[in-house]
Amino acid sequence: MNDPGRGGEAACAALASFASLDVRAAAAEWPFVDEEETRAALELMRAGAAAGVDDDLVWEYRRLFVGPAKKAAPPWGSVYTDRECVVFGASTLELRAWMRAHGIERLGDKTEPEDHIGLMLLLMTWIADNRPELLDEYLREHLLTWAGHFLSLVEREAAHPFYEGLARLTRASLEGVCEARGLEVTYPRFYR
To answer: Which of 42, 49, 55, 132 could hold 18 in an S-S bridge, CB 3.0 to 4.6 Å?
Structure first.
């Protein structure tokens, strides 16, 4: 495929790295997740990355997260936690208010709702590095409330091994972080 989409060259380079990944070595170093589970997820990702950014990978990304047809796994928290299943729902506004109250500016794409899974994982990293005293609250009240549900859906719906492995490893990593930090999360009702 000539046009790998958004992220173009960086996506190609990242997939090339995954295709040549030493899965055993990486699994041995992965934090918060059992080595066998990590190895299985990384092997799926490595196998899926072997073809690089091809039509199968791009179309699966679109089918899962973008559309134009109904998305198999919309990447925004409010789609799952709001009765109307909408983007920019109440949970998005609650996260936005929480960030404002703590003086945290938006990260990444300014047009994307704050509760996009990618932005929320980026924010988790930023908080851990810059405002660690807020990490447990952020995880307990905003990210962990819906991320496992979403990632399980991606795992179940993925027809490409890269996305299945990515969802599996991300879900297991977040579960490991939750356990390591001794967090108790109250899960909302999921409407999707």
So the answer is: 49
Task: Give CA separation, 133 vs 47, 100, 102, 125, in Å.
Answer: 38, 16, 11, 13
pTM attached to this predicted model: 0.91
How far is 113 from 118, CA to CA, in rounded Å?
10
Q: How far apart are CA 21 and CA 188, in angstroms?
A: 37
Reading the block at residue 190, the tokens are 């999921």
Tokens of 173: 């990593």
Q: Is 107 exposed, middle or buried (0-12, 13-18, 19+ CB in 10 A)?
A: middle
Residues in the chain: 192
Alpha carbon 144 to its chain centroid, in Å, reads 11
Of 105-114, 135-144, 146-155, where does mean pLDDT reach its minimum? 105-114
Cα end-to-end distance, the chain, whole Å: 33
Fill in the DSSP letter of residue 32.
Answer: S
Residue 7: what pLDDT? 57
User: Which pair of tokens denotes residue 184?
Assistant: 């108790």
Give 11-46 pLDDT, tens digit per residue: 788 888 888 999 999 999 999 999 999 999 999 999
**Residue 102 DSSP SS3:** coil
Q: Which amino acid is at 70?
A: K
Contacts of 101 (CB under 8 A, 6+ apart): none
Query: Would the pLDDT of 141 be above 80?
Result: yes
